[in-house]
Amino acid sequence: MIKKEFRAESKRMMEMMINSIYTHKEIFLRELISNASDAIDKIYYKALTDNDMVFNQEDYYIKVTTDMANRTLTITDTGIGMSKEELENNLGVIAKSGSLAFKKENEAKDGHNIIGQFGVGFYAAFMVADVVTVISKALGSNEAFKWESHGADGYTIESCDKNSVGTEIILKIKENTEDDQYDEYLEEYRLRGIIKKYSDFIRFPIKMDVKEQRPKEGVENEFEEVLEEQTVNSMVPIWRKNKNELSTEDYNNFYAEKRYGFDKPLKHIHISADGAVVYNAILFIPENTPFDYYTKEYEKGLELYSNGVLIMEKCSDLLPDYFGFVKGMVDSEDLSLNISRELLQHDRQLTLIAKNIKNKIKSQLLSLLKDERENYEQFFTAFGRQLKFGVYNDYGMNKDTLQDLLMFTSSKEKKLVTLDEYVSRMPEDQKFIYYASGESIDRIEKLPQIELVSDKGYEVLYFTDDIDEFAIKMIMSYKEKEFKSVSSGDLGIETDAEDKPTEEEESDNKELFEAMAGILNNKVKNVKASKRLKTHPVCLSTEGELTIEMEKILKAMPN
Ligand code: ADP
Ligand code: MG
Predict the structure, then answer these.
(1) H or E segment at 310?
(2) Which of 99, 105, 198 to mutate to test the pocket of ligand 1 (most atoms within 8 A of CB)?
(3) Per-residue pLDDT tens over the stretch 485-527
(4) Which GO molecular function entries does the Swiss-Prot or TrEMBL record give (predicted)?
(5) Is 307's C-beta closer than 6 angstroms to any atom of ligand 1?
(6) What is the Cα–Cα distance from 197 to 313, expressed in whole angstroms?
(7) 121 annotated as a binding-site residue
(8) Is 31 annotated as a binding residue?
(9) What confidence tens digit (pLDDT) does each residue in 67-121 have?
């Protein structure tokens, strides 16, 4: 039998690809700049192995220019260039990646700065351009060639003039339509923004001619507009720098520059992981709760970079919900990206990184608690509620991670304490961790139920947050001490015989108690004498798991 090859209608394929891979048009620039950076990288690697070649850092750059009148946007690089065959093979064959081939050939050498791998990024140019022209001269060649395409219907190649080695990509930007705007891709300000967003940490300078107002020479108070060539990108990512070269101020500036928040970070965490998975990360614990934090609008996530190129603005898989307040970025070479370089397949590396990050955040919070108590309390006031939700959600699966991070206001000096602190200073005869729920500390302190426990000299945790008691039910016990609500029937205190109401006291008042229960119309299960009251005549107590406060909350919840 003869095996036949699949054929594809390349025109249709191309249209499908251009219009369905990417969700944002603006990433075309990311793709072209990444290609330019790869091209320079290739020269760099060549120079590493070829003793006759010198790599002068300043000779290598990427330049982005616009021509409003002709509606063109040009991306020029001083990289390795393409021969006629390479233009045919790399730009004429969809899904062929010269960069991937280069990486494979040069595996032995350190080739992992190269970004390309899928062989489709280039075509993103057709999302914004009617015509794409590529003028290129390959390293070691005397000839230059011009490749040109109007998109789906094919391309032409002819020889042309070009002095220096490298590539020039000229996009004829589409006209605005009713639905789509394209003019913005000719505007310096917008282009700068896109470069900053996706390509800020490309290792080579990305230059643009920027309009600047300058005082006019010889004339006072008059300005003239001049074009000045500026490097737009920062080039060296802060996360690749050595921790001890960086000051808190550097991190704070990064936080502000990246607009992670308008506040100052309370703490930064810089990770350079070199183990099972290689990645760099800079994480921040913000100082304040973002205004939309406890709403549906808030989106958790970290920025995800692959080799310094932004892949995803908010990668939510990197953070568990209970650490959703953490801001920052992760850069890794090890990710298996999908073709659009936007989404990730459910990736083992990503799962590993996420786990790693989770543990790191936890240990950093613990050290904040230990070494910077005041800052920790500030953190907990801002985000503690999230941690308590974290304990409660997922059936308490994360309680081990989170319980040591919790704090509650204690009856002792009305200060925040951790469970560990509470338990470690319990008197020997105290069996339970006592808590009292209520709307506010004031109201809790007026609860008759508290008196007996306090009189014993036991500390009581004040639960003023709806979630508190639910979270604690998930923890059940801490260091083998169970939690007990002060309003529960059996407080585990009345051990002395004299503390129990006598039979006489019960029987003498039997009629009165029955009458009371009758008046309360069976809203209470029964009325009985109690020794727990000191200055109050009466109090409510509960039996079983649910306390009065929990019932209130459950009743208030929408069904
Ligand atoms: P990828 O970058 O994933 O390989 P692209 O579609 O972006 O895919 O590019 C296809 C190929 O074209 C690249 O692998 C590279 O070999 C070549 N190429 C693209 N742009 C340039 C450039 N500016 N200089 C040299 N080669 C380039
Ligand atoms: Mg590419």
Answers:
(1) strand 309-315
(2) 99
(3) 988 777 777 655 555 667 777 777 778 878 887 887 777 777 8
(4) ATP binding; ATP hydrolysis activity; ATP-dependent protein folding chaperone; unfolded protein binding
(5) no
(6) 9
(7) yes
(8) yes
(9) 999 999 999 999 999 999 999 999 988 778 888 888 888 865 565 678 888 888 9
**Cβ atoms 487, 463 nearer than 8 A:** no
CA–CA gap between residue 75 and residue 170 (Å, rounded): 7
ipTM: 0.99
86 C-beta neighbours (distance < 10 Å), count: 17
pLDDT digits (tens, 9 = 90+) for 15-61: 777 777 888 899 999 999 999 999 999 998 888 778 888 888 889 99
Does ligand 1 lie within 6 Å of residue 35's CB atom? yes
Half-sphere exposure of 278 toward its Cβ, with a 13 Å CA cutoff? 8
190-194, 459-463, 543-547: segment of lowest average pLDDT: 543-547
119 labelled as ligand-binding? yes
Is 197 labeled as ligand-binding?
Answer: no
CA-based nearest residue to 365, from 336, 329, 322, 394: 322
26 CA distance to ligand 2 middle (Å): 15
Dihedral, 499, 503, 504, 509 alpha carbons, nearest 10 = 100
Q: Which tokens is 82 given?
A: 């393409």
Residue nearest to atom 21 of ligand 1 (CA): 35
SS (H, E, C) 426-481: CCCCCCEEEEEECCCHHHHHCCCCHHHHHHCCCCEEEECCHHHHHHHHHHCEECCE
CA 89–ligand 2 middle distance (angstroms)? 14
Q: Classify residue 532 as exposed, middle or buried by CB count within 10 Å of its CB (0-12, 13-18, 19+).
A: buried
Q: Is 356 in the pocket of ligand 1 (CB under 6 A)?
A: no
- Whether residue 41 has its Cβ less than 6 Å from ligand 1: no
Q: For ligand 1, atom 18, which residue shows the shortest CA distance?
A: 35
What does the block give as tokens for 301? 């996530």
CA of 101 to the centre of ligand 2 (A): 12
Counting ligand 1 atoms within 8 A of each CB, the residue from 22, 28, 38 with the most, and so the one to mutate, is: 38
165-174 CB burial, b ≥16 within 10 A, e <16: bbbbbbbbbb
Q: Is the CB of 99 under 6 A from ligand 1?
A: yes
